[in-house]
Amino acid sequence: MKLASFIVADRSSFGLVENDEIADVGALLKDRYADLKALIADGGFAEAAARAPEAKRISLSDAVLLPVIPNPGKIFCVGHNYESHRQETGRAKTEHPSIFLRFADSQTGHGQKLLRPAVSTMFDFEGELAVVIGQGGRAIAPERALDHVAGYACYNDASVRDWQWHTHQFTPGKNFPGTGAFGPWLVTADEVGDPAQLSVTTRLNGEVVQSQPTAEMIFPIPAIIAYVSQFTPLSPGDVIVTGTPGGVGAKRQPPLWLKDGDRIEVEIPKVGLLVNTVECERPAA
């Protein structure tokens, strides 16, 4: 099942994606579920599927797609989680995953503008697989971790490198508005199967710039879920962005920075194709 969050006619909703249409289940269930996160928290996938045949159909071309979960309580990002990326950055090996946070209001949806901040000249791509938590918990065992996953989506954890490199803390470079592209939809865990059998490919203006199997993550998804849930409770709708392969623009010679008008794609088989166009933010008045 594919589920998307969207806006149509100035109304936000969610629904099931079927071919080139969305079944607007959110309109039918609005008295029970304010958004997709609420549906996930209540385990409402079966109910959504059952109501889909009676839902109004909306063409994908008529909908503005939002970040898959527009309002996650937490967004965890994993740094240097592929050996190729760890080596190109010169980072030392670690016994535990490197975790940093992204804010919900830094996100944007499929087909929307990926904003290069006016104060930056070093805007970079990072294609990644995102995990959406379905069942919350604390101190989750690795062998049970995938039972807590609602589904998966594509993510472009675009990085404002000059701000990321101000200090050793990543937060400023990862939280400018419109820099975290998340979409186009959530594919439920049952349809994806083993997330270690996927691959992440990023294309810039049609040219492949990153491509690697998810089996080559240093810390696989169950280990990440187990680690994060040790220090904080996971809640339905929380997002874990699992790391980017090698090939980022910052480590190329010369560096390859995103510029106005660039088309950036993140593709993960079984999950989707996330497409955004880069736009330079106007300087603040």
Automatic annotation (TrEMBL):
Stored InterPro entries: FAH (IPR051121), Fumarylacetoacetase-like_C (IPR011234), Fumarylacetoacetase_C_sf (IPR036663)
ATP-binding as UniProt keyword: no
Domain Fumarylacetoacetase-like C-terminal: residue ranges: 74-278
The keyword Metal-binding is annotated on this UniProt entry: yes
Entry's family note: Belongs to the FAH family.
Lineage of source species: Bacteria, Pseudomonadati, Pseudomonadota, Alphaproteobacteria, Hyphomicrobiales
Keywords: Metal-binding
Protein name according to UniProt: 5-oxopent-3-ene-1,2,5-tricarboxylate decarboxylase
GO-annotated molecular function: catalytic activity; metal ion binding
Residue ranges the record marks as coiled coil: none
Organism listed in the record: Rhodoblastus sphagnicola
Single biological process term from Gene Ontology: small molecule metabolic process
